[in-house]
């Protein structure tokens, strides 16, 4: 993701890199990031496909860890993966091996190859931005003034991730730095992500913070008619009932059904992005199937509650459990970033989604803090009423990349 804001569901990722000591070596003076064009990216189709496949596999692994949450959930696996890939570009040794495994990247390609392929994929994603489907992506590097960063890492952030650079003073004015980063994140996500780095967070040991921001505001290809929206019963997992405002439509949709679930795919304008919604059969677990649904056009009587909510958690323990524990210890090796020792600390993530008659707005934010080292019969109508907990995902249909994953346990909750 890149220094300019590009037309995505709002998501943001920050990677905070902190060191054992400031050191006395003079830092590489960062320059404004050059504008990367698709022609400048020289990566193979296989490498780009590998990153897309890796991000999809990472999303599945991440969701398996987060799905047990009792309430509503929304995350941006694409945002989290990109931020971690930015850190991975400077990982070495066992740290790099573990991160590659957790990110499903494999170990037979270099970090530089992965960075180039990720940059190429992000260039492709910006093509999803249209007048009706706005997808913005931006990367930034916030660097401690007196901290040494290796030129190769600076170049990778600028050339592959198209990052803008900001010199700051975490050591002397950490609160000013926190406010500046949060203000930038809020602007990039149209104020949907506030206080990515929480008040009270001490950034005095920070030496480098990488931020990735994604924002999506996409209109449905076929909007719902507001006059058809009305309260309808929704049964929560504990069998209590709420009555959210529920949208209705009866028309042709991409539809799939098995004995385990019903699913529908709703395209956004210009058909580059789409939301898939899955309703498990009664008594079946709230889980994505192992095989992707086999969609076919069918006439569907669709009832879908409107929903708006945010979700947040620190993902550090989740990522450790996904196979990258070394990065969180004093044994971490981020020698490709700096000669100074670094390790990842907390990984807070925030996300937002709003679905209504006109379309979808979504946002997410992640802070990776790197601390000091120490089909139906013709003519029939399928009834698909999302009247109990269901799953959703937003994908880029051109690459297959999952941008957002979520669960609606109670559409009336907004917190």
Topology:
Blueprint: E1 11-18, H1 45-66, E2 73-75, H2 77-88, H3 93-102, H4 111-125, E3 133-144, H5 151-159, E4 164-168, H6 174-188, E5 206-219, E6 230-231, E7 234-235, E8 241-242, E9 245-257, E10 261-267, E11 273-280, E12 296-305, E13 307-314, H7 316-321, E14 342-344, E15 348-355, E16 359-372, E17 381-385, E18 390-396, E19 401-408
The CATH topology assignment of the largest domain is: Antithrombin, Chain I, domain 2
Helix content: 10-25%
Secondary-structure-based class equals alpha+beta
How many β-strands, per DSSP?
19
Number of helices: 7
Distance between the ends: 28 Å
Q: CATH H level of the largest domain: which superfamily?
A: Antithrombin, subunit I, domain 2
User: Which range does the strand content fall in?
Assistant: 25-35%
**How large is the radius of gyration?**
22 Å
Order of helices and strands: EHEHHHEHEHEEEEEEEEEHEEEEEE
Cα shape: elongated
Average pLDDT figure: 84
Number of domains: 2
Quick one: CATH class of the largest domain?
Alpha Beta
Characterize the largest beta sheet: strand count, sense, and whether it forms a barrel. Answer: 9 strands, mixed
Shape-level CATH architecture of the largest domain? 2-Layer Sandwich
